[in-house]
Design brief:
Distance between the termini: 34 Å
Oligomer: single chain
Order of helices and strands: HHHHHEEEEEEEEHEEHHHH
Strand order of the largest sheet: 1-4-5-8
Mean pLDDT: 97
Low-confidence stretches: none
Radius of gyration: 21 Å
Bound molecules: flavin-adenine dinucleotide
Helix content: 40-55%
Shape: globular
Largest sheet: 4 strands, mixed
Length: 379
């Protein structure tokens, strides 16, 4: 296992305690009510973990991604929806951190460590995996852009203070014609559509957004015009490592529940943990999760070391491997608990529903294999 510095151990054990004592008891209720847990945002802000990877001047502590990955894991063990708050925050922040100028960073980033929320808006009804087919356009008018279009499924889109939005500034240029903007809540022309009813990760809303002649000042453009697609790809690499960490945590949480249950449950006069069928299932669950964890840490390390030839492939591989593992492990955890696993009285049922999303968002696992395969075979 990876050796951590003493101060990193302190941070991690503080997060573990918060997750176990404050987040775990709320997880079922958040799932049931599908209400956004503002109390969790307060806990995260007060404990400095909304975006700790940001440099100090922007409100973070310059935390390594590896440690942030472990934080996401600890939180996901207890409540994946709570981890999603941090992931969605990271998704919105990355484009600004990687592509924004100092003025933009100073204006927006510090508030995002103290309770303000940001969302990441790329997906449209006709543009999911095929993101270049997006229709949203930003047309320059003097010192502003006029935004028209629509986004969908945007995590925390309906409640965010600011939204990173991707739009074509020059549709004829394909990927070189996309730019990124920060759209502020309250902007005239920002219209909220429906919030989706979802299978899992029900603590965070997913919303339709419409832009109707919305005026965005030029100073809210993230980076140069036409650099939006490259900015999006860099942000998504990091985001995929975050999702992988969430998947590892979910899988570990399900293993913890399943092993505890197996030791207690008696059938045929003995603990079911004595049956080889259960032992084999648990052994497979643990082996796969340990492998997913190491791959995820490796992806985080590549990000920390800025190894640009490794980042995309490792973040994609970690994302698909860890989320496929989480799906299998949580499903098997339900199996270990038998009929009780299928009931909402036990958390494995929620974990299984939560795990499914990680195979889909921040790029489906099919697309992750396309990205990794291309990177590996690149000449
Ligand atoms: C709960 C939730 C939260 C989300 N949050 C956000 C968010 O905050 N911001 C945001 O911008 N987006 C968000 N998304 C959108 C998400 O990233 C997309 O749903 C995802 O990228 C897939 O796009 P799609 O749903 O249009 O599926 P499609 O692209 O239509 O894919 C349908 C199926 O076809 C497969 N497929 C498509 N193309 C290929 C190919 N070339 N090769 C092989 N298989 C292929 C896919 O893998 C999938 O199985 C969210 C989605 C969900 C469900």
């Amino acid at each position: 296992m990876i050796e951590l510095a003493p101060e990193q151990e302190v941070i991690l054990s503080a997060v573990r305690e918060i997750a176990q004592k404050k987040l775990k008891p709320r997880a079922a209720e958040i799932d049931e009510s599908a209400e956004f847990p503002w109390d969790t945002v307060k806990i995260f802000s007060e404990n400095g973990i909304m975006a700790p990877f940001l440099p100090e001047k922007y409100g973070g502590i310059g935390m390594e991604y590896l440690i942030f990955s472990m934080i996401l894991e600890e939180i996901s063990k207890c409540c994946a929806s709570s981890a999603l708050i941090l992931i969605a925050q990271g998704d919105g922040i990355m484009p600004v951190l990687y592509g924004g100028n100092d003025e933009l960073k100073e204006r927006f980033l510090p508030g995002l460590t103290k309770g303000k929320l940001i969302a990441f808006a790329a997906t449209e009804p006709g543009a999911g995996s095929d993101i270049l087919s997006m229709k949203t356009k930003a047309v320059r008018k003097g010192e502003n852009y006029i935004l028209n279009g629509q986004k969908c499924f945007i995590t925390n889109g309906a409640i965010a203070d600011v939204i990173t939005v991707y739009a074509y500034t020059d549709p004829d240029k394909g990927p070189k014609g996309i730019s990124a903007f920060l759209v502020e809540k309250g902007s005239e022309g920002l219209v909220y559509g429906k919030n989706e009813k979802k299978m899992g990760m029900r603590g965070c809303p997913n919303s339709e957004l419409f832009f109707e002649d919305l005026v965005v000042p030029e100073k809210n453009r993230i980076g140069e015009e036409g650099k939006g697609f490259y900015n999006m790809m860099a942000a998504l690499d990091t985001s995929r490592m975050f999702s992988a960490s969430q998947a590892v945590g979910l899988a570990q949480g399900a293993i913890d529940e399943a092993t505890e249950y197996a030791k207690q449950r008696v059938q045929f006069g003995r603990s079911i943990s004595e049956f080889q069928a259960i032992q084999f299932m648990i052994a497979d669950m643990v082996a796969a999760t340990e492998a997913a964890r190491l791959l995820t840490y490796q992806a985080a390390r590549h990000l920390d070391k800025k190894r640009k030839h490794q980042i995309s492939r490792f973040c994609s591989m970690a994302k698909f491997f860890a989320s496929d593992t989480a799906m299998k492990v949580t499903t098997d955890a339900v199996q270990v608990l038998g009929g009780y696993g299928y009931m909402k009285d036990f958390p494995v049922e929620r974990m299984m529903r939560d795990a499914k999303l990680i195979q889909i968002y921040t790029g489906t696992n099919q697309i992750m294999r396309v990205v990794a395969g291309r990177e590996i075979l690149k000449k």
